[in-house]
Design goal:
mainly alpha; 5 helices; 64% helix; globular
Length: 110
C-alpha cells in the first residue's frame, strides 16, 4: 500500500495537476512547473512510472498519484529548500498574513 510522504506537498502537487482539466499530464506538468520541467522532461517523468504522458489527470488512480507525488517531492526537495531560502517573505507579506489570520480568528464565533 502506498503512503504519502509529505501531505502538504502532495496536496499542492495534486491541486496544480488538476488545475487544467483538458490538458494532458505532460502539458500540465511543464506549464505548472516551468523551472523544473520542459515538455519532453515532463513526458519522461510520467513514462518512467509507466504512465502515458498524453493521459489527463482524471485517468490516473489514487495509488499512481501518490507514487508520482512522492517521486516529485524526492526529486525536488533540495530545490524547494533553496527556493524557501531565496524567496523569504517580505515584512509586508508577513504582516498581511498575520492580519488575515487574526481577522479570521476574530470573526470565528466562540
Amino acid at each position: 500500500r502506498s503512503r504519502i510522504h509529505n501531505v502538504p506537498r502532495f496536496h499542492k502537487f495534486i491541486r496544480r495537476m488538476f488545475l487544467h482539466r483538458r490538458k494532458t499530464l505532460a502539458n500540465t506538468l511543464s506549464s505548472e512547473y516551468k523551472k523544473q520541467f520542459s515538455k519532453p522532461q515532463a513526458a519522461e517523468f510520467f513514462e518512467s512510472h509507466g504512465i502515458d504522458s498524453r493521459f489527463r489527470a482524471e485517468q490516473l488512480t489514487v495509488v499512481q498519484w501518490i507514487e508520482l507525488a512522492n517521486d516529485f517531492a524526492e526529486r525536488f526537495a533540495a530545490v524547494d529548500q533553496l527556493s524557501q531560502v531565496v524567496n523569504r517573505p517580505t515584512g509586508g507579506q508577513i504582516v498581511h498574513c498575520l492580519l488575515y489570520y487574526i481577522g479570521n480568528f476574530l470573526l470565528t464565533p466562540l
